[in-house]
Each structure stands twice: as structure tokens, then as C-alpha cells.
Design a protein that fits this description.
The complex is a heterodimer.
Chain A: E1 4-11, H1 16-29, E2 33-37, E3 48-56, E4 69-74, H2 77-83, E5 87-96, H3 103-106, H4 116-123, E6 125-129, H5 131-138, H6 144-153, H7 160-170, H8 176-187
Parallel strand pairs in A: 1-4, 4-5, 5-6
Antiparallel strand pairs in A: 1-3, 2-3
Helix pairs in contact in A: 1-6, 1-7, 5-6, 5-8, 6-8
Chain B: E1 2-6, H1 7-17, E2 22-25, H2 32-38, E3 45-48, H3 52-64, E4 69-74, H4 75-91, E5 97-103, H5 117-123, E6 126-128, H6 133-149, E7 154-159, H7 160-163, E8 165-170, H8 186-189, H9 193-216, E9 221-223, E10 226-234, H10 235-244, E11 248-253, E12 255-257, H11 261-270, E13 273-277, H12 283-290, H13 310-316, H14 343-354, E14 357-359, H15 384-401, E15 404-409, H16 410-426, E16 432-437, H17 466-472, E17 477-481, H18 486-498, E18 503-508, E19 524-525, E20 544-547, E21 550-553, H19 563-567, E22 573-574, H20 576-582
Parallel strand pairs in B: 2-3, 2-4, 4-5, 5-7, 6-7, 10-11, 10-13, 14-15, 15-16, 16-18, 17-18
Antiparallel strand pairs in B: 1-8, 6-12, 9-11, 19-22, 20-21
Helix pairs in contact in B: 1-2, 1-6, 3-4, 10-13, 14-18, 15-16
Amino acid sequence: MNTRSIMIVGVGGQGTLLASRLLGHVLIEQGYDVKVSEVHGMSQRGGSVVTYVRYGDRVHSPIVDEGEADVILSFEILESARWISYLREGGMLVTNTQKTWPMPVITGAVPYPENIAEKLGAMANVTAVDALKLAEEAGSAKAVNVVLIGVLSRKMDIPEEAWLAAIDAVVPAKFLELNRRAFALGRNA
Amino acid sequence: MKKLMLGNQAVARGLWEAGCRFVSSYPGTPSTEITEQAALYDEIYAEWAPNEKVAAESAIGASLAGARAFCAMKHVGMNVAADPIFTASYTGVNGGLVVCVADDPGMHSSQNEQDSRHYAIGAKLAMLEPSDSQECCDFAKAAFDLSERFDTPVMLRTCTRVAHSQSMVELYERDERPLKPYEKNPRKYVAAPANAVARHIAVEERMEALRAFAETTDLNRVEMGDTDVGFVTSGTCYQYVKEAFPAASVLKLGLVNPLPVQKIADFAAKVKKLVVVEELDGVIENHLRAHGIRVDAGKDRFDPKGELSQNRIRAAMGAAVPASLKYDEAVPGRPPVMCPGCPHRGLFTVLSKLKLTVLGDIGCYTLGSGAPLQAIDSVVCMGASVGMTHGFTKVLGPDAARRTVGVIGDSTFMHSGMTGIVNLVYNRSIGTVLVLDNSITGMTGHQQNPTTGLTLQNEPTTAIRIEDFCRGVGVKRVRVVDPQDMAATEAAILEELASDEPSVIIVRRPCALLKYVKAKPALSVDPEKCKGCRSCMKIGCPAIRFTDKKASIDATLCVGCGLCEQMCKFGAFVNPSKAKEAE
């Protein structure tokens, strides 16, 4: 199989690293060669963050370039606009509709752009969900990452049990019930 | 058995499999996890040293004692460790000695993008460069073998994309190594001039032997394919080349110093065009040109700035890049910011208000330079704030000294700020230094340091008290403030600035991300009381928004620190924690 590319984008602190590790775990168990690329350090402090997950028979580059992503999983709607150029033609954007203001918007230097989901919907195949609301419903705003993995799981040809097994393997025991609820809410959204 | 591993985790695995016993490092992105992961193996003693020089010296000592020893650092850490490493090249090793240096092309979390290969050339050391996690493990083991075979420290160079990418690694058992006996041998190990003259001969002979080795080792591999273009490359660039041109011929270098010149010349003779793909400087290219090997494309096409990628290589080679969508509206940037509840925010709000000249340092508090606080005038390297405060105030005199402070974190203070304090005292400075003590090494992801009272393994140890150190070296004016109390912090700074001798203010409050620092309930804004004056916006808190001329709080981000409350003259913030206390 040719290498497929998934990008996970969001705001530092939203739990994108856990989401990419979950996804990596699922894909390894499906027998693929997998590379997951992360960025640590300064950008984790509320900056724009991106992780790459690539899988196939033999993966070379650990990163995804412009026009290459089969799927972008976005944790924040402004980040969807920022990274949309990485989506390949015919690719799919799965996005949270949550808005987290970046500092230039907070300081009043620039406005937060409006109607991003609608504009992106006119450009590409977009699934937009209010993952924050679902995460709160599951029991914690912090579960946004697993809600979004749940949404993504419906778009990929991998059995539900494989996802649940990965959650069991990656998530600490005391947060397991919360994350199982979050996954189910995302998957059924 | 195979396992998905981060490059850094795989280096640690390689250390363990190679029988390494001793690891000493200072944290630095993207190298930090190697040492954290090494510490998880019972057979490896691992520690955080106060800086890279001490780490390297400790590893040199462990090697002399007969153990396989290792230290890891980020690229700029190599500047600090260079002194012992350049001379360890002359003394050679007893147990194998490997130094990992992690470059950061693209500066994801660094102040420059220097190319560490220059150090291997300068120090006359073999350097290996892995391209994925499997090679991180394999090359760590190969590096120890080379170190003992050629009696030399060996460098292992990674970069962000190798260190922080996960890929599959085949796991093997540990090759347990008994300690090599230590025998006193001053002619080898005492780098005094008479001995070092002889050792320099040994170093040059060793380089000759390594050059011969480079020609035959399978660390350097030819993958013949289409012969129109042949790529010479290494590390993560190899992966980008394979992605962009899977059918091309490639000479993949695993040993990047010394280079196999004859092997490359033979490869060049088999391809129509020779292209050198390397991130940062044209090190391989220049070496080949110096040896008269024709290079058809190199740094004339590949930018020496930033990272490369498969598309950058496609574009440089004139090949098509995939079509991409364009969002037709400006997208506001999202620079990193201090976290909600960050203890540095209160201090930088005060510094910004006082309009002081602030000589900054390396750590989370570097973020105090960003809008809206914009409170920092200069940042250079670890520990520089203290030395720069001295030089800046000496030249501009007492009036300027009363408007200038140095700002340095607790871990950075231990790294190389301490000697600057000695200089302030010795050379009769009147400078004021603020030590931002958040009880942890923050930016690299919460490592212990000599001030925290805990080792890498979280075992109790003597906590070095910054105030005792400063008093001990002769600073008479030392005090401690809590940055959460902005009025008291401001008063303390003004008092110390007015004094005619060096002063140190320890600005102390634990990092808001530490597990034991519990978030309080989010504040809210009473829209009736909010006058829309924007005072609260001055602190640059990511949790405060301003819509319809009123402030509001993003409850998913607020941790209830209450700093905004201190800014508001109209009592518009509703703080549930205070309401509870009042009950």
C-alpha cells in the first residue's frame, strides 16, 4: 500500500500528542509500517502545534508536506484554516469547531476570522463537530482529543475494537472510563 | 520483538543494549528524552548535571574508570561542553564514550540553528548520523564499538525530526560489559603540553585509520537505482530523498565524519549528476569540492536555512510538487505564550509597567518578549542575562543600572548564571538580577535540577538554595518575593534598583503545570461592572477575551490564578475561590 498521511493540528496543551500516539498504536496493530512525528518544547506553550502520522508498507519521510495529507484532524477551527494547504486534492478535514483565541487576537491586533468552517466546507470535504461540547458531556473538557479520535475512527476502515484496545493501552487507568465515553460520543457524532 | 519508539527512546535502548552504565546530561530540546528514557533501565546510572560541560566531564570520568559512558545535549549545549570534548579527543577513552548532539534545523525550540558537524571536524571525532529510530538504536551501539576500537570519543548527531519521530525498532538483549580495568597512564590521560604533543600525533593517525574505515563500513551504503541523478545524503534528508525520488541512486552516509571520499568518487562516476542533499551548511558538499569531486547541485539549490522536506527537494530538483489548497484570508499567527496561571506573568507585567531594560535568558520566561508584555530587550544563551547585566550597566553607569535588570530561571541559574553572580560581586557591579524560581526546569518538560531537592529519579537529595548561594558568594542584598503579589514584587524591584550594590531577588512560585499545583475554579466577568478599560488585557493571558467592549473568560483555559483581578480597578472579576473563602 502507498503511504498514507494524517496530520493532527491544534493548540499546544490540547492533547494532540496523545491523539497521535493513539493513532500510531492503532495503525501498528493493523500491521502497517508507521512513523509519528512530534514537536516538543517551546511550541507546546499555547502555540500552533502539528504532529504527523504516516503509515503504509514502507514509510520514509516522517513529515507531511503541503498537498500530501489524506486526512487533517484539527483540534481548533483557526488551525484548520492555517494548515488546509497540507490537504491533498480529495483529502478530508475533520475539525473541531472550538475557537481558542491566539495572542494577536487577544491583544486586539487582528480579529478572529469569521465563518471558517463554511469557507473550508466550500473548498474541501469537511466534517465539523463541537468536540468541546461532547468532551464536557463525557465528563471533562480535556477529553477533546479522544472525542476527535472517535470522530476520525468512523472515517477509517479499521474495526472499532482496535480503537478501544488502543485507548486501553495508551490512556492511564484512572481516565479510562472518561475516555471510553469520549470516544463513543465522537464516534456517534 | 519490534516496538514503535521515539528516536530519543531508541538511542536510550541502544545505550542499554550496548552495555552502557553511565549517562549524564543537561536537558535540551530535542535531546531530553534520551536521558529520561535511559534512567528507566536499572543497569544504567543516569543523572541530570547542572550543565553540559559538567555532564561531559562526568562521562569522561566514567569512561576513564572503565565504563561505557554517554552524555546527550542539544546543539547549543555542545558549545558549553566543547572544552572537555576537544581535549578528550586527545586523551582517548578507556570504556567507550559517546556524545549525542541534537540539532534543531528550523529552530522549533532553539535560539540558533548551528550545524554540529563542524564540531566533529574541529575536534577530530568520528560522527554517526541516524535517519530513523532503528538507526538511533543501531548507531548508538556502533558508536560504542568505534569508540573502543579507535580509542576516541564518538559523536552521534540527531536532529528534531529523528529525535522526535517514532518508528519501529527491533529490540535485542543487553550486551553486558565488565568494567575495563583502570590503569594509571599519565602520558595518555594528562593533557599537559609534552604529553599532548604526542597525543596529537595519535589523533592524526586515528583520523587516517577512520578515513580508511569510512571507505569500507556498511554504515555508508550505496543504493543503486536510476543513474540520471545520484544523491549523496544522510540523516533525515535521506528519508526525504527516498520519499521524493524513490527510484534514484542514493549514497546514504551513516558516518558523516570522516567522509568516504573514494567511495563517493566511485559513486559519482556511476551517475550522470551528483546531488548533495544536506540540511544547514554545505559540509559534505564543500568537502567533496575540496577533493575535486564534481558536485552538480548542492547549497546553490538547497537552502542552508531551516529544514528540508520532500517538497523542498522536489522543488529544488525542478520536479512537480503536489497541488495544494489556499485559504484566501489572512490567518492570525499563534505564537507560543506563557500558560494560564504561569508564575512568570505577574513579574513580566510589573517589568513591562516599569519600562525597565530587561536582559533575558533561556527558558519559558523568554516568552516575556512577546506581545503584549514585550518586556525583554535581549536573549542570547544560557546564563547570559547575568553577564550582560554586568557589562550593560558598567558601560552606561549607575542611572542606567537603576533601570536595568537581568532575568534568569532557577535551572538556568544553576547551569551558568552562578558564575555571573560571582562576577557581579568581584567586579563591584551594582546590577540587579531576578531569579525566576518556578521549582522545575520548565520549557524542556519538567526536569529536576539542583534547586529542587530531587534527582532525575525523583529521589530526595540536598536542595541547593539560591539565596544561600548568593549570600555565600558575597551578595548582601538577597530577598524573596511571590510574583503573584504584583504590588509587593514591584516594591521589591524598585528598592533593589535604588541600591548601590549588587542585588538578587528570587521571584518564587512553582510552575502552574506541576502536578501538585492545583487549578482553582475559573473566574468570570460581571459585565455590569466591566468598563471596557482593557487593563486586564495587559497581562497577556490566553484565557481573557475581549468582545463587545467587555472582557470575558475562556473557562476551558482559566486556572483561577486571579492575576486579572489584581489589574481591575472596578472589581469586575468574580472569583469563586474568594467567594468560598469569604463563606
